[in-house]
Every structure is written in structure tokens, then in C-alpha cells.
Task: inverse folding
């Protein structure tokens, strides 16, 4: 059993090795510190947001609205920073978490008390929050001069390991992943989320408060996306209400799905999701290093998701057939 | 169940009354028709989406399918292929792309959300890899389908009305239609009662693909030029229309009439907001809020109906 569970996480690792080997053969510069740095630069945003999505998907939900939550939080925090230039970075990050959590609670309330399906709610709030970001900013973008250097410094500086830089953004993202891992593995609520995801009825009978974990899950997912919004502002140095976080939900859901998380709930790990995020980052950088135009990025994403899914589906049906044969004997 | 269609129906009347204060042309049928033409493509996708959602699945790839078919058709026409052949090819391509989704969902038992998320990226990605940032122009004789009228309707709208009529008949008056509802209500029970569940799913996805192909043609002809990044997010519009029209995202519930009415509701509201100088960004918020409110209202209506039914039943049931 342990081996079988592991297999889901090995898939992104195998892909990762394949992509890296192929990219290195095509263009040895792929292993240069410069391209490794750009891979590590690519990872933080998607990782931080993916941790929230992991929690929601494990409990059989989905949050499509995170792209707009990222946009809203980036705009809101950008405006706060515009008004008080001297705000410490820590507070800005916390403000992002708070704003994201509030938006997450909107989703959470509609799903828990409105008894609506997560897809409908978050498709609705995807457009609603994006519009709200425009309303808030009056359609104006937050210019690079308005974002303090202390925030953009999170992206440009970090721990140096020889020629490789671990940016502070990456460290924040890894901290979020660590927190998510501890929450999911060692807390009562985290275990309840898995219990509910694997079997909602049994979890209910065992006394898991379904409303509480649903509410908590979507709030946490919103909070992670809110944090990602502030990181976005730091990474790119400007925020446009129309483009900040646009279509980000798809990248995140792709990373989570490739990372071996079961979309039908009940199974998933932080390690797998990290590998999924790393894989997407490697693909992006590999494409540009190998001189393939960025136009091929999307088709590669799609192909990887499909291959991961098909591998999963085929291996499951083979396993089921074997089981049936065993039972027949 | 019928209460679900009342919601978009009533909202259309309210919207028309409200907007007529803004401009008297809201009672002018020609004005409404001209403005609804823009929404025929979303409508066709929503008609297909109705089938897929009723079977308990979802298709996020319709927009990408539409763009890929549109781009491939434009390429075919550019290389001198006769128009009839290109149109036929577009219909076939759309159907094949849709059926591929269905096959993955039904035969490999994969979640439709993820499969179509993958094909959404894949189909649009193929279009992007093929064309790059360039756009393809369509030959002049192919352009401008929305300018021509047929029995009083602009062509795209006529196609949408016909598609929803035919699909409505298929959904509500054929065995296949009943199977679609059965699969969405209880898949295991449908399998045990001998319904070819896999075939129903593949067909539902294939129909959606066909309609996406047709809307790709309409887009080509309306704009006269295609790029890979057109109509991003149109799949969400199509899902919004279907859900507004009372299709339950959990499957098993919905009607073509609801989808049909919901499309006109969206068309009227968007036209009205455009006329009232509501900025595009605020329109987004309003549509999002409307979707959630409508879904809440439908849940409430279902709840009331259940209470009413259970009250009627109480005297019969043994204590």
C-alpha cells in the first residue's frame, strides 16, 4: 500500500528528471546557475498559492477564484503601500494574508451556508473579485515607483549559496509549504480534512464538523492567495488590476494535479505539490533556454497534464483488472 | 423543477422594464436582435454545456476547441480549400476534439474537470504553437455572416435558435435525452439498468465539441481574422449561462429552455449596461454576483419545493 501511494508522487519526479535531461541534452546552458536561478524565481508565487488549493482539493472542493483574489490583494496592498510608503514588509505581507482570508471567507460562507457547489461559487467570485479590484483601483495601475524597494527586494535578494540565490520570496513560499505540511499532517483539523475528503459520510458520522473544516479550508486557500498577491507585487514591481494573477488559477490547479493530488479528494501531499510546481517552473525555463518560443508553453502544459492523467487512469484500470483476476481465481 | 426556468424568465422581464427607462429601444425587437447576435457563440457553447453538465460533468475546453477549430479552418481556407469542405472539416474537427474529452472521461474514468482543463491548455496551445503571435485573415467571401438575415433573424442567432431547438428536442423528447438525465442523477444505477453510460458521456461531449466547432466558424466569419488568444474565458461565460438557466452543476437537473432564456438574459443585461455606460469591469462584478444570487435562489426554490412535497406526504408515511 505504501508503495502504491508513493507512486502518485513519483510521477512528477520522473517527469522532472525527463524534462531536465532532455533540456540539458538540447542546451547544456540549462544547468547554468543563471537558468537555475530563473527556475527558482519562477516557483514561489505558484507554490504559495498551490498550498491553499491543495487543502481545498483534498476536501473535494475547488477554488477557481484565486487568480482574482491574487489580483485584488495585490491592488489593495499596493494602494496601502502607496498611501504609507514606510510600511514594513512584514505588515504588508500580513495585510495580504488578511485581505485574502476575507475574500476566502466570502467563498466559504456561500459554500457552507449557501449550500452552493464550489465550482459555481468560485466561478462567480472569479469575475466578481476581478471587478472589485477594478472598482477599488478605479482602473489605475500601481506604478513601479509606488512599490517600496523593501518589497521588491524580497525578489531581488536572498540567501546566497554560491552562485545560486534563494530569494526571500522562495523562502516565504517554502515556509508556507512547511506550515501547510504541519497543518495537514499533525493537527486534528488537518486530519479531519483528509477524513472528510476520503469519505464525507464516514467523517460526518465520526463527528467531524463538516461546516467548520469547509469554512476553514476556503478561508486558508483565500489567505494563501492573498499572500501570493503581495508576493506578486514584489516580484513584478507593479500591479495592473486587469492582469495581476489573471489565469493564475489554471497554472496552480495544473501544478496540484500533476503533483499527484486526487481531484476527487482524500489524497495529496505537500511534497507532491512542490514537485508539481518545480516541474512547471522547469518546463518554462527549459523552453526559453532551449530557444523554443514561448508560444509552445501552453501546449506543453496541456500535454503534461494529459499525460499525467492518462498514466494515472491507465495504471488504475490495469490495477483493477489485476484485482478482478485475482478475485476470479 | 420548473421553478428553475422561472428565474431567468422573470429576470429578463425585470431587466427589460428597468432598461427601457434608460432607452426606449429596449422594446425595439430589431435592436435586441442585433445586440444578441454577439452572444450566439456563447449560446452555442452553453447549449452543449447543458448536456455535459446534466450528465454530471463539465467541459472547460469549449473555448479552446472553438479557437483551435477556428484557426485550423482559417488555415485551410487560406491554403485555397473550398468553403464547403472547410466548413465540413470544422464541424468534424470540433466533434473529434469534443469526443476525445468524452473518451478520456468515460473510458479512463478520469475527472472531467481535470481532463478538460488539460485539453483547454492543449487545444489553445496547439493553436498558439501553430500560429504564434500572428493572425490569420479569412477570405472576403467567408466574412460577415452576422450581417445577413434569414427569416428575420441574423444568421448566427438563427443558428443558435435552431441548435437550441434541436438540442432541446434531443434532450427532452428522446431516449438519449432521458439517458443523459439518468446518468447525471445516478451513474451506478444507470449502469445497472443497462444504459450505455460511456456512450452517453462520449456523445454528450462530442455534441458540445460539434457546437464549439460551429461557434468557431461563426467567430471566424464575424471577425474576419483569428488569433490564438481570442475569446479567453468564454467557457466560464457558457457555464454561467447554463447555471443561470437552472442547470444544476451536480448533474441530473436542467432544461434547454432555461439555458435559452438565460442567454437572452445575459445579452439584455450586458447590452443594457453598455448603453448605460457601465464600465466593462463593473459588468464583470454584476454578472458574477448575478450568477451566485441565481444559484442561491434556485437552491431556495428547491428547498421550498421539497418542504412542500414532504408536507403533503407526511400523513401517508408511517410514524
Result:
Amino acid at each position: 500500500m505504501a508503495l502504491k501511494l508513493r507512486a502518485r508522487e513519483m510521477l512528477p519526479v520522473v517527469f522532472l528528471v525527463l524534462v531536465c535531461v532532455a533540456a540539458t541534452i538540447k542546451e547544456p546552458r540549462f544547468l547554468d546557475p543563471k537558468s537555475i536561478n530563473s527556475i527558482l524565481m519562477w516557483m514561489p508565487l505558484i507554490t504559495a498559492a498551490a498550498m491553499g488549493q491543495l487543502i481545498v482539493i483534498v476536501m473535494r472542493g475547488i477554488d477557481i477564484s484565486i487568480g482574482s483574489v491574487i489580483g485584488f490583494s495585490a491592488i489593495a496592498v499596493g494602494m496601502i503601500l502607496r498611501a504609507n510608503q514606510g510600511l514594513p514588509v512584514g505588515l504588508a505581507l500580513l495585510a495580504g494574508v488578511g485581505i485574502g482570508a476575507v475574500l476566502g471567507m466570502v467563498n466559504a460562507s456561500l459554500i457552507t451556508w449557501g449550500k452552493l457547489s464550489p465550482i459555481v461559487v468560485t466561478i462567480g467570485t472569479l469575475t466578481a473579485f476581478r471587478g472589485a479590484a477594478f472598482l477599488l483601483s478605479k482602473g489605475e495601475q500601481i506604478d513601479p515607483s509606488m512599490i517600496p524597494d523593501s518589497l521588491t527586494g524580497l525578489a531581488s535578494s536572498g540567501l546566497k549559496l554560491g552562485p545560486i540565490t534563494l530569494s526571500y520570496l522562495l523562502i516565504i513560499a517554502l515556509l508556507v509549504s512547511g506550515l501547510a505540511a504541519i497543518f495537514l499532517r499533525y493537527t486534528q483539523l488537518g486530519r479531519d480534512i483528509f477524513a472528510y475528503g476520503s469519505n464525507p459520510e464516514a467523517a460526518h458520522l465520526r463527528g467531524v464538523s463538516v461546516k467548520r473544516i469547509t469554512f476553514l479550508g476556503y478561508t486558508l486557500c483565500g489567505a494563501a492567495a492573498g499572500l501570493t498577491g503581495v508576493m506578486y507585487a514584489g516580484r513584478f514591481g507593479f500591479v495592473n488590476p486587469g492582469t495581476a494573477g489573471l489565469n493564475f488559477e489554471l497554472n496552480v490547479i495544473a501544478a496540484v494535479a500533476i503533483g499527484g493530488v486526487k481531484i476527487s479528494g482524500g489524497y495529496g501531499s505537500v511534497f507532491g505539490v512542490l514537485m508539481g510546481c518545480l516541474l512547471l517552473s522547469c518546463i518554462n525555463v527549459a523552453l526559453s533556454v532551449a530557444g523554443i518560443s514561448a508560444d509552445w508553453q501552453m501546449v506543453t502544459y496541456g500535454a503534461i497534464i494529459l499525460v499525467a492523467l492518462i498514466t494515472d487512469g491507465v495504471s488504475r484500470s490495469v490495477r483493477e483488472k489485476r484485482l478482478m483476476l485475482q478475485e476470479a481465481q | 423543477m420548473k421553478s428553475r426556468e422561472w428565474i431567468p424568465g422573470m429576470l429578463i422581464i425585470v431587466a427589460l422594464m428597468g432598461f427601457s427607462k434608460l432607452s426606449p429601444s429596449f422594446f425595439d425587437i430589431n435592436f435586441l436582435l442585433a445586440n444578441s447576435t454577439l452572444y450566439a457563440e456563447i449560446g452555442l457553447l452553453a447549449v452543449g454545456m447543458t448536456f455535459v453538465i446534466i450528465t454530471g460533468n463539465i467541459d472547460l475546453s469549449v473555448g479552446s476547441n472553438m479557437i483551435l477549430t477556428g484557426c485550423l479552418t482559417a488555415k485551410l481556407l487560406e491554403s485555397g480549400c473550398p468553403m464547403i469542405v472547410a466548413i465540413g472539416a470544422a464541424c468534424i474537427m470540433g466533434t473529434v476534439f469534443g469526443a476525445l474529452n468524452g473518451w478520456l472521461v468515460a473510458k479512463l474514468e478520469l475527472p472531467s474537470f481535470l481532463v478538460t482543463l488539460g485539453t483547454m491548455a492543449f487545444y489553445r496551445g496547439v493553436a498558439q504553437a501553430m500560429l504564434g503571435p500572428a493572425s490569420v485573415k479569412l477570405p472576403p467571401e467567408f466574412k460577415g455572416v452576422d450581417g445577413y438575415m434569414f427569416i428575420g433573424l441574423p444568421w448566427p442567432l438563427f443558428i443558435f435558435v435552431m441548435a437550441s431547438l434541436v438540442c432541446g428536442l434531443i434532450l427532452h423528447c428522446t431516449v438519449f435525452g432521458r439517458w443523459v438525465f439518468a446518468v447525471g442523477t445516478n451513474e451506478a444505477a444507470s449502469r445497472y439498468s443497462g444504459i450505455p453510460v460511456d456512450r452517453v458521456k462520449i456523445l454528450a461531449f462530442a455534441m458540445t465539441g460539434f457546437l464549439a466547432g460551429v461557434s468557431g466558424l461563426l467567430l471566424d466569419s464575424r471577425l474576419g481574422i483569428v488569433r490564438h488568444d481570442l475569446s479567453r474565458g468564454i467557457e466560464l461565460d457558457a457555464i454561467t449561462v447554463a447555471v443561470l438557466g437552472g442547470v444544476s452543476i451536480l448533474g441530473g437537473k436542467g432544461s434547454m429552455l432555461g439555458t435559452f432564456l438565460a442567454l437572452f438574459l445575459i445579452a439584455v443585461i450586458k447590452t443594457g449596461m453598455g448603453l448605460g455606460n457601465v464600465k466593462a469591469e463593473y459588468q464583470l462584478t454584476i454578472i458574477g454576483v448575478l450568477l451566485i444570487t441565481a444559484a442561491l435562489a434556485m437552491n431556495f426554490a428547491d428547498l421550498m419545493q421539497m418542504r412542500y412535497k414532504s408536507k403533503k406526504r407526511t400523513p401517508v408515511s408511517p410514524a
Remarks:
- The first strand of chain A starts at residue 158 and ends at 161.
- The beta strands of chain A are 158-161, 164-167.
- Chain A has one domain: 2-328.
- Chain A has a mean pLDDT of 88.
